[in-house]
Amino acid sequence: MDSIRVKGGNQLNGRIPISGAKNAALPLMIASLLTDDTLTLENVPHLADVEQLIRILGNHGVDYSVNGRREKQQEGYSRTINFSARQIVDTTAPYELVSKMRASFWVIGPLLARMGEAKVSLPGGCAIGTRPVDLFLDGLQALGAELDVESGYVVAKTKNGRLVGNRYVFPKVSVGATHVLMMAAALARGETVLENAAREPEIVNLAECLNAMGARITGAGTSTITIEGVDSLSGARHRVIPDRIETGTYAMAVAMTGGDVLLEGARVDLLQRAMDILAESGAEISQEEAGIRVRRNGNGVRAVDVTTEPFPGFPTDLQAQFMGLMTMASGQSKITETIFENRFMHVQELARLGARISLAGQTAIVEGVSRLKGAPVMATDLRASVSLVIAGLAAEGETTVSRIYHLDRGFERLEDKLSNCGAVVERLSG
Ligand code: UD1
Fold it and tell me: Is the separation of the CB atoms in 327 and 350 below 8 Å?
């Protein structure tokens, strides 16, 4: 199994191109199931999760082709991909495929809306809490779906071949369930109103794509989304937004190591709260035309308390990275996780680098230390793994992060991007 070796102590200086957002690309790719026309997506990141979803969609009959023309980034970076679901050949998403990536469960929405039936395995994915699917099932039932759970599969059917618009109030904010109900309602008969919907930028990105395909969606980005169902959707060309989690991760890396980096293509409005918190901790953040510039020179890291929340609050996907930064702050900070119940697995690994963190329920209390020291550590989930890599960059000596297959699910060319800015990072295979 591959690992990453980091020699800490260097500042980061230079430019890092920010890739297309994984969490936007995945639902956009799934939206290709809604039409027999071609959906062209620009700026799709080159990631293990994207490749996995291509295989899953292929199983349903989606063909894909990568555009010959490279984008201005180097080879291997984000690409333009055409997806074409001319014919759906299978409405079953099997356990072997869905268990590898939770988001592939989301195919249930478009399959049901277009084909009137779907059989989708209950998901797997990151080991961060129980992550049920009750909201998806409640919401689809509100749109008239008939559901059964049989041997680990959700078997869904529409009553008369088509979903029917309705009002649905999410009892809890869910990004995935909002994506799925928006896609399902796009082809339902009549109007759907989703209340207490997720407001994440990835929801807006998907709504814009669906509208470009002929859907009639308003209010995406607010907590009430209205969808006027249409009979069919066409193809479109649409661009994946820049990855706000990748942006925040590298911004935190610079805040930890010191230095001056331009995050090319990044947009502050996609993660305003995290950037405000980072500025409070002592980093200088500015939006420039080419991207976000992050600097920290000389001044120490101030302790700041943070609570994760749905957008526009501080994202849970940056919690582990921020904790890494707070391990070096002067004083005590409290980090409270409200989205997932088991998302502190990085705590014991950060402790191996010399961090002082104690847990009280859903809150981590971090006592800043003057320096971290390199050690062998293990990646536990996607965001936790990257927090260990960036903590290693700021630690004295050598840190080896094992089980980094998690990283390849969500970070495009991490080692290259960091090495280009002066970090000493290498991948060890075997
Ligand atoms: C998405 C993101 C993930 C991010 C998360 C929260 C993608 C591919 N993944 O995940 O990176 O960490 O949003 O911002 O976009 N829940 C239920 N029942 C359900 C569905 C969810 O109780 O049916 C709970 C979850 O367990 C969790 C909370 O709702 O506690 C939020 O989860 P959700 O927003 O659905 O996360 P994902 O869409 O899976």
Answer: yes
* DSSP 8-state code for residue 4: E
The pLDDT confidence band at residue 71, using thresholds 50, 70 and 90, is: very low
* Per-residue b or e along 83-103, where b marks 16 or more CB atoms closer than 10 Å to that residue's CB: bbbeebeebbbebebbbbbbb
What tokens were used for 335?
């980090």
Torsion of CA 161, 166, 169, 171, to 10 degrees: -30
DSSP E strands, 265-350? 284-288, 291-296, 306-307, 332-336
How far is residue 418 CA from its own chain's centroid? 20
Q: Catalytic residue at 126? A: yes
Per-residue HEC secondary structure of 114-131 comes to HHCEEEEECCCCCCCCCC
Cα(107)–Cα(233) distance, integer angstroms: 16
pLDDT-derived band at 127, boundaries 50, 70, 90: very low
pLDDT of 188-219, one tens digit each? 999 999 999 999 999 999 999 999 999 999 99
ω into 312 cis (within 30 of 0): yes
Q: Cβ-count burial of 263 within 10 angstroms (0-12 exposed, 13-18 middle, 19+ buried)?
A: buried
Q: pTM for the complete prediction?
A: 0.96
Distance 131 CA to ligand 1 centre (A): 7
Q: Which residue's alpha carbon is at the smallest distance from atom 32 of ligand 1?
A: 174
Closest by CA position to 222, among listed 191, 192, 178, 190: 178
Q: Mean pLDDT of all residues in the chain?
A: 94
Cα of 129 to ligand 1 centre, how many Å?
10
| pLDDT one-digit tens code per residue, 334-347 | 999 999 987 899 99
Report pLDDT for 341.
82
Residues counted in the chain: 430
Determine the atom of ligand 1 nearest the C-alpha atom of 202: 15
- Distance between CA 282 and CA 296 in Å, rounded? 7
Is the per-residue pLDDT at 37 higher than 60? yes
